[in-house]
Design goal:
Keywords: Flavoprotein, FMN, NAD, NADP, Oxidoreductase, Signal, tRNA processing. The protein is an alpha/beta fold and 641 residues long. Helix 15 runs antiparallel to helix 16 and helix 15 runs antiparallel to helix 19. An 8-stranded parallel barrel has the order 8-9-10-11-12-13-14-15, surrounded by 5 helices. The chain has 25 helices and 17 strands. Among the domains are: 243 residues, Aldolase class I (TIM Barrel), CATH 3.20.20; 85 residues, no CATH class.
Length: 641
């Protein structure tokens, strides 16, 4: 009975528990979590195809823009509305998420803006890239013949880049006389990147000065790319890399033609500008002594991304007096080996040279440097009077300002042969000492007044004066007209260098003979010629100027008595009341000692004679025998005065 009762209680308890559970489940059905958008409340996520682009999705559909991407709006805290809704702090880079266990921080997926996405430059240009780091404008830039026909307007007459010479005023003068394309001066890429003032001056251009290519010398790809991005404001049509400068400063700076043996570095320089800059990249090179190597060099540049190649038909060693003639055959071989436009450089002094070069090499254009500096009207086939061209340039220098040193250099080159005449020494001095453009204009006007009547139609022909340099008589034109610079023949230069070397060897031999005579103790032969001649006619110009200054010399020193032969202060202890230089000369000439200057010529000569005498005695003792030698040696070893 009790057993049955116990079973009944257990069954009843189970039934009550089941009914209670069912009631609880039924009553809690209304509190069941409803399905929600799985993206609601999530932090910004990245696009798989574009990891650097951030996709912001808002819980509020009304805040979404086209395609469901939220429009971020600024909040008072400096972040965005999306960040504020999700509880994120843009300054901390984490998102606060509340849960039953409290507030926890999770990493935020908010992307930081890249410094390369938008960077302003001094020239007002903006360097921008897309989300994946690439710039659509880079792939759309013209190259090769498209660049030459388009931006460069099929230019055939080109003014070369010249350090401190091809500034805006000179470029505009060259364009007036037919130049179709100009380059800026060569700029140093490190200074361009680091020096804001230098960069601002380099980026100063004018709308009428187009087409225009900027040139850099560089040996670091990253620095060159940074400089290239400063030049993407539209004021330049291409960027040229200088690989042809043969000067000693290029050797010290490790750029120009002294990079031509480092092909891997050159390839990186060209490739980084070609692939990551909006500007087309061009190169200016010199040839190798081996033609086959020159062709491989040009093809390497083309494969790296060079869009136009300028070939100077001389080697790296051909410079200065050893310049010689450019090799047009090598330029022709390069033109036939590559599929990009080629400019030829070298041997361009007259307009006829331009036509011959185009016909011989088949290049797209001809570049000139030195010929243009001495005659900017070369491309027009003209030879105007030098003062007319100089006046035109100085007027342009006022309109397109440049450093005075640039203007002075141009005036010197234009008036080169006129300034060689002794009769124009005053004009040369005025030009050299000019500190304003007005003084340069005054010098040019002096030449006009002296020689303009010789350039008029029917005027008498100019003839050199007896004291004029011989080179003026060998010129094809009168020195009053613009014409190419005539270099000294290489053979004559080599003969002159050989004569200088022979003279130096003779002087060394004479010095050696005088030294031997001095050691022998010959009193009649001076140890050396006097270092300072007392005859004013034998003094140098610098010494005469120093003597003329008089009291100005040593003005900052203490007041001292002067040497009796010059304006230098005399030695305070000198017995002869002379400066050190003249005291030394006097002692050598008259075999004297000056304890005040510690010039002991007489004592040293006497010691030399005594030493030679002892050596002769020792030699005689050795020849006479040992017995007498001991006694003689004792006598010789006694100190002598």
């Amino acid at each position: 009975m009790y057993t049955n009762l116990l079973r009944f209680v257990v069954v009843a308890f189970r039934i009550n528990s089941s009914i209670g559970s069912a009631v609880d489940m039924e009553s809690g059905a209304d509190n069941k979590p409803q399905p929600t958008d799985s993206t609601a409340g999530e932090p910004p996520r990245q696009d798989a195809a574009n990891p650097s682009a951030v996709m912001l999705e808002s819980v509020n559909n009304g805040a979404s823009g086209p395609g469901g991407i939220a429009k971020p709006t600024e909040t008072s805290g400096g972040g965005t509305a999306s960040a504020a809704m999700s509880g994120s702090d843009p300054t901390l880079g984490v998102t606060e998420r509340k849960s039953d266990r409290g507030t926890e921080a999770t990493p935020s997926h908010r992307a930081e803006p890249s410094t390369l996405d938008s960077e302003s430059t001094d020239c007002g240009a903006t360097k921008s890239t897309s989300g994946d780091g690439s710039d659509p404008a880079i792939g759309d830039k013209p190259g090769g013949f498209e660049l030459w026909h388009g931006r460069l307007r099929s230019a055939r007459l080109v003014v070369a880049p010249m350090v401190d010479q091809s500034e805006a005023a000179w470029r505009m003068l060259s364009r007036k006389y037919g130049a179709e394309l100009c380059y800026t001066p060569m700029y140093h890429v490190n200074m361009f990147v680091k020096d804001v003032k230098y960069r601002r001056e380099c980026l100063t251009t004018y709308p009428e000065d187009r087409p225009l290519i900027i040139q850099f010398c560089a040996n670091n790809p990253a620095t060159l790319l940074e400089a290239a991005r400063y030049c993407e404001g539209g004021q330049f049509d291409a960027l040229d890399i200088n690989l042809g400068c043969p000067q000693s400063i290029a050797r010290r700076g490790h750029y120009g033609a002294f990079l031509q043996d480092e092909w891997e570095l050159i390839s990186q320089l060209v490739k980084v500008v070609h692939e990551q800059s909006r500007l087309p990249v061009t190169c200016k090179i010199r040839i190798f002594p081996e033609l086959e190597k020159t062709i491989r060099y040009a093809r390497m540049l083309e494969s790296a991304g060079c869009q136009l190649l300028t070939v100077h038909g001389r080697t790296r060693e051909m410079k200065g007096p050893l310049t010689g003639l450019a090799d047009w055959d090598a330029i022709k071989a390069v033109r036939e080996a590559v599929s990009i436009p080629v400019f030829a450089n070298g041997n361009i002094q007259y307009l006829s040279d331009v036509h011959r070069c185009l016909e011989h090499t088949g290049v797209q254009g001809v570049m000139t440097a030195e010929g243009n500096l001495h005659n900017p009207a070369l491309f027009a086939g003209l030879h105007p009077p030098v003062w007319e061209v100089a006046e035109e340039y100085l007027q342009l220098a006022r309109r397109y300002p440049c450093p005075l040193s640039y203007a002075r250099g141009h005036v010197f080159k234009i008036l080169h042969y006129c300034l060689l005449m002794p009769s124009n020494h005053d004009v040369r001095q005025l030009t050299a000492r000019a500190s304003r453009l007005e003084q340069l204009e005054e010098a040019v006007e002096l030449l006009r007044q002296r020689y303009s009547h010789l350039t008029e139609p029917g005027a008498a022909e100019w003839r050199p004066a007896p004291d004029d340099p011989p080179v003026l008589a060998r010129l094809p034109l009168s020195p009053l007209f613009c014409q190419p610079h005539e270099r000294e023949p290489i053979e004559d230069h080599l003969k002159k260098m050989q004569a200088n070397a022979d003279k130096q060897r003779r002087e060394q031999q004479e010095q050696k003979e005088r030294k031997e005579q001095r050691e022998e103790g010959d009193d009649d032969t001076p140890a050396r010629p006097p270092a300072r001649a007392q005859d004013p006619s034998a003094l140098s110009k610098r010494k005469l100027k120093k003597l003329a200054r008089g009291a100005k010399v040593g003005a900052n020193r203490a007041i001292m008595e002067r040497c009796s032969l010059c304006c230098n202060p005399r030695g305070l202890r000198c017995e002869f009341l002379l400066c050190r230089l003249h005291c030394r000369d006097k002692c050598y000439e008259h075999n004297l000692d000056c304890p005040g200057h510690r010039i002991l010529v007489k004592t040293k000569r006497q010691n030399a004679r005594d030493w030679h005498a002892r050596q002769r005695r020792l030699k005689e003792v050795e020849e006479d025998g040992p017995a007498e030698g001991d006694m003689a040696a004792d006598e010789v070893q006694q100190p002598t005065r």
